[in-house]
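Entry type: protein chain
Record version: 2
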Amino acid sequence: MDDREYAWSVGVDPKQIADAFKDYHLAHGSLMADWHAAWRTWVRNSIKFSKAPGQRNLPLVAIMQTPDPADPYGAKAWASKLADARPDKMPDGSVAMCVGGYDAAGVAVDVCRAAGLPPDWRGDLGPIADWLRAGVDPDHIVQVIRSSRPPRQPGAWYYYDAKVRAA
């Protein structure tokens, strides 16, 4: 699982390269001291050798993980690290990391704003992804948070959990 997550983290679909990795090493009778290190090298080489000479396109996930001062709450960086988030094209033509069919970073920003958190707040956004995975509508999440009394601790999402899940 960690090997697949590593591939996703650098913008490589592990399903697309796993068979080549396996077949190559079976055909050559490879014996490795560390198969995980061999996989990471294979993934990096798949990026390195799949580009035309001189091309400098970075993988989508690497771009999204680059620190961005305009990324309120660190939402884009957070969404790019979610194991189940997948890149998807949005109606405006942009690409976002989606969970449950929703732009995870966009929902996180909306939720944090509804909670009245300052844009430089960097706390746990995990429950927001959990709500999206559970199929809770993002508009419902924002409405519940906006209409609730804020908890004493900023970003204490557990305070909202039962209300958000009660649809």
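Comment: The radius of gyration is 19 Å.
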